[in-house]
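Suppose you are handed a protein chain with no further information: no name, no annotation, nothing but its sequence. What can you learn? This example shows the usual starting point.
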Amino acid sequence: MTSFGSPPPNTTSPSPSPPMTKKQKPNPESNNNGSTAPAASAFPSSCGTLGRHLARRLAQIGVRDVFSVPGDFNLTLLDHLIAEPELNLVGCCNELNAGYAADGYARANGVGACVVTFTVGGLSVLNAIAGAYSENLPVICVVGGPNSNDYGTNRILHHTIGLPDFSQELQCFQTITCAQAVVNNLEDAHELIDTAISTALKESKPVYISISCNLPGIPHPTFAREPVPYFLAPKLSNQLGLEAAVEATAEFLNKAVKPVLVAGPKLRVAKAQKAFVELADACGYPIAVMPSAKGLVPEHHPHFIGTYWGAVSTSYCGEIVESADAYVFVGPIFNDYSSVGYSLLIKKEKSVIVEPKRVTIGNGPSLGWVFMADFLTALAKKLKKNNTAYENYRRIFIPPGIALKRENNEPLRVNILFKYIQELLGGDTAVIAETGDSWFNCQKLRLPENCGYEFQMQYGSIGWSVGATLGYAQAAKDKRVIACIGDGSFQVTAQDISTMIRCGQRSIIFLINNGGYTIEVEIHDGPYNVIKNWDYTGLVNAIHNGEGKCWTAKVCTEEQLAEAISTATGAHKDSLCFIEVFVHKDDTSKELLEWGSRVCSANSRPPNPQ
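A reasonable first move is to predict its three-dimensional structure. Written in structure tokens, the prediction is:
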């Protein structure tokens, strides 16, 4: 049962962050100059205000940092967020990065929030919110809206497309959020705000809340001084359906000779990681993860065999999964990327598919309103131990080879870079992998216990990792984030390196400079995949500008890489460290070469005959 008085389950609640400036927090409800509340109000100030209510609600659900870009329609609201002692307002360079930061924050904290202004801000943050929707992340997206008096007046406002209809922004958000609230009346504001926030937590999806710019500071009796905590109703499985699903699945799997267990990305939204490990311990099957589930399952588990990704799986993992006579996929997403261009050798009649609210056994029964965690816990008690497939894996497994011996001052190779990154990892680190070849190289990293791992596979928006690194590091202050970002992706969202420095973050960013969009080269090459080279360390140094802690280095050889990492983990362990790594444009993982050719084949299928 989740209370609005405590963070959501399975999340960590970092200690409140100090405000970015040492200035005294303003009182937005005062009647001094710059007042947001009218001098004479119909209700006493003890009634509380919309702005304070929203600020307290965000704090109650576990949000400690709100990512924002100011605009004239949200300034009054921002005053109220600043006035809340438990909230820290993090100003971002643009709305897209504010949204990406809220995404990264939600991954580490369980829920995130961003605040932008009407339309010009809302449409800028749209892409990031769509990514959060695709990844099942609860992000509260708040937009400062027009004055409540302007609705329905046929007036044309700035920051719009020049029409008196103000609904364009709302229409855009309707397909990428699970709930929308347009607050332009204090009478129902309390209900609209609380319903939207609770829906985000229940559905694990973003929500959109638009608040008229003249309302945050006006007292109203619906807003108690301290919002009363309330509870989200617990989700309970249909008991008869649960029993039927467990019985049918146990019968199916107990007849199998060499079954396997594969984790998918929906483990997170179902909050079923612990139940998955219970099942893995009980059944003895080898356990693999789909690529987008990396980090959700402990890789130090004795039966962990790697990433199942079809033709680009971890060595020997794909063979064990695809040769099994039964496989349990827990929370999978089978799209063109995760299936390597629809080339997985998986048969439906051999599979058990466990969704967050449904279980399907082979070509047989499909039972709904059976929740994943309940199902996995109950199934663990019914399965016979069977380690046949794992023993087969141990028989055929050969440890990975080591990189070829290098010459002195030989240009750095990507596989050498990731050997050093592997050595950096521990329980106090987290990896952020940008869309591109880092997807494939980071998949091969073996994650120590409690090491975080995030990437955006379903949406795959290049540039996501800069904002996500900002947000994740702000939420998980006990971890040092190690971000692997390609040069093309970095050019999309580079500005918020500034915010990382301003927040005193100590991430290590490996900027992999190979001269272009390498992942797209391997899908379909052309001159559009070559980008203008930047002096990346020079850019970061200019952003640093002597304020805060930031250290940069350029790396071309293994000796230089070793020295840079030694400095980043030694003398500059408390600084943001930006290491630009120069590699050959054709130095890619073998997995990207295979994956790219298969995705190209899927993309270039001719039209079906009419």
